[in-house]
Amino acid sequence: MRYPTNDLEHFFMPFTANKAFKANPRLMVASKGVECTTHEGRTILDMSSGLFCAPAGHSRPEIADAVSEMLRECAYVAPFQHGQPAAFELARRLKAIMPGELNYTFFTNSGSESVDTALKIALQYHRAKGQGQRIRFVGRERAYHGVNFGGMSVQGMVKNKEAFGPGLVGVLHMRHTWSEDELFVRGQPEKNGVELANDLQRFCDLHGADTIGACIVEPVAGSTGVLCPPKGYLNRLREICDANGILLIFDEVITGFGRIGGKFAGDVFGVTPDIMTMAKALTNAAIPMGAVAVTDHVYKTIMDATPGVEMFHGYTYSAHPAACAAAIAALDIYENEGLFAKAAELSDYFLDAIFSLKDLPVVTDIRGIGLLAGVDLAAKDGTPGARGGQAVQDLWEEGVMVKMTGDTACIAPPFISEKSHIDRMAEGLRNVFGKY
Questions:
Q1: Residue among 277, 207, 211, 206 nearest 248 (CA)
Q2: Mean of the pLDDT values across residues 215-220?
Q3: Domain tally for the chain?
Q4: Inter-CA distances, 359 with 171, 286, 366, Å
Q5: How far apart are CA 133 and CA 210, in angstroms?
Q6: 312 CB burial (10 A radius; 0-12, 13-18, 19+)
């Protein structure tokens, strides 16, 4: 154990009940593969891949070696007006696996920064076309798009917004895609896909299509509890965007890099966006990094219309050399070990295990696709979130970790998981949820 664990006072923790945590801490001091080690020496099975971000398992030596070599060779290069080869190589590697014509990549440091960058790119694209009046964005209820002001504004998770004011003006929200009429659905629901997507058309009719710059959605809404798009939903959004000159943005921070059965959601659902955000699995969580991919048309429209510096946007650590090295090493692992295919092969076994929890009285709904699932639990004593807060601690004691959002367990095992890990996960979830 490298650092002391007896003074926890001064760290202001994110998305955490700080007082409760510090009274009964859940600290991890090591992680390897699909398991983490607590400060008490216990082993925890990580069935959320960290925060959906370590599909190749924790502490991969190949990534550590690549980062170490880069830090000794070229620890930093200012990304404004200068460059370093790893950034261009990573962009080239990403181009080779992107769906459609998403051939150009802008690098950020997180999913939140990627979303705000995508929104800025959309605004600049329309300005370059002489349509600077297109300043509205359309998001969706129950969406999560990070924590920066742009992402906070277009998302639809109320608790993430209520303390911080209205955010960006001119943001509209479509209805979410979950329905009480279709519970315990594996994969895409059958009903209401086109009808729900037509919310975007109604906004065009009400506010004027020429005022809307972009529509941003998670292809599968992740952090809110894994809401799969109904059949026809994404296709209809694409049709409406094309007909009205609106850019379609896919937030693939969670779904990207093999999580839902293909390389990206565009591959799985057969719909390609104009702009796509990435992060999390991009570096297998070893170094913070995000990215925004844009189509040839979006990139060239901005380049052709703008002399000199084409976009006055970027970050001190955009395309940081160590992050680029980590991402390239992660892509090598995904390719060399066939992890995207392995994830797809494991999906049925995983979803069978998750849907086996349907008989538990506390479980009110289950949804899943690929290696991603959401399990809704009945509220405790009529207080939303209380059951989920209890589950975090109970699962910790059981030796299983998943992500709880309110009263929903979001489950996303690493792609290197074996069937024995899935069995151990299902047993732990049953042991804990069965007591409620």
A1: 277
A2: 98
A3: 2
A4: 41, 38, 11
A5: 7
A6: exposed
DSSP string, 43-60: EEEESSHHHHT-TT-BS-
The mean pLDDT value for 311-324 works out to: 97
Place of tokens 């506390």: 362
The tokens of 258 are what?
């093999």
Q: Where are the beta strands (DSSP E) in 327-421?
A: 363-369, 372-377, 400-401, 403-405, 408-411
* Cβ proximity of 139 and 218 under 8 Å: no
CA dihedral 261, 263, 264, 265 (to 10 degrees): -30
Are 34 and 421 a contacting pair, CB within 8 Å?
yes
Show the tokens assigned to 159.
């608790």
Q: Is residue 203 part of a domain?
A: yes
What SS3 class is residue 114? Answer: helix
Q: In DSSP terms, which residues pair with 222 in a beta bridge?
A: none
Task: Look up residue 87 and give its two tokens.
Answer: 């950034």
Helix (H, G, I), strand (E, B) or coil at 292: strand
User: Rounded distance, CA 267 to CA 265, Å?
Assistant: 5
Mind listing the pLDDT tens digit for each residue in 167-186?
888 899 999 999 999 999 99
HSE-up of residue 401 (Cα within 13 Å, Cβ side) = 20
State how far the Cα of 182 lies from the Cα of 176, in Å rounded to an integer.
14
Q: Residue 30 is inside which H or E element, if any?
A: strand 28-32
d(CA 320, CA 71): 10
What tokens appear for 403 in the block?
A: 């992500």
Per the structure, the complete domain to which residue 42 belongs is given by 18-56+339-433
Q: End of a domain among 336, 356, 390?
A: 336
290 and 205 fall within a common domain: yes
Is the pLDDT at 1 greater than 70? The verdict is no
Q: Which residues, in sequence order, are CB contacts of 164 under 8 Å at separation 6+?
A: 149, 152
Kindly state the average pLDDT of the residues 111-128. Answer: 98
Supply the CATH number for residue 396's domain. Answer: 3.90.1150.10
Q: Which of 336, 369, 389 is the last residue of a domain?
A: 336
